[in-house]
Amino acid sequence: GGPVASVNSRDGRVALSVSASSEAEETLLSQPAPACVECGALSPLWTCLVCGATGCGRYVAMHAHAHYKQSGHTLTMDLRTQRVWDYEDDRFVH
Fold it and tell me: Are 60 and 54 in contact (CB under 8 A)?
């Protein structure tokens, strides 16, 4: 089989566990940390559950909310807590 990787997020930091060859491990570890696609903010981050776009939260520059307004994609996940927000109902749904 190929490499096995798992990602855990605690306190906004990403921990990557890899079981693979050293070449595959180097490739995985060289990936940049998630950031807002618009401004590069590292926290808080929200990822669209429809298309995967990542944007910053409402207390930074609201790029995740702007993505919802532009795309109509209503569900987004907080990368730190993994809670799911529904913009249409304006509440957490998971």
Answer: no
49 to each of 52, 57, 58, 89, how far by Cα in Å?
A: 6, 15, 17, 15
* Single pTM value for the model: 0.66
Residue 72, CB half-sphere, CA atoms under 13 Å: how many?
0
- What SS3 state is found at 38? coil
The most confident of the ranges 12-16, 30-34, 37-41 is: 37-41
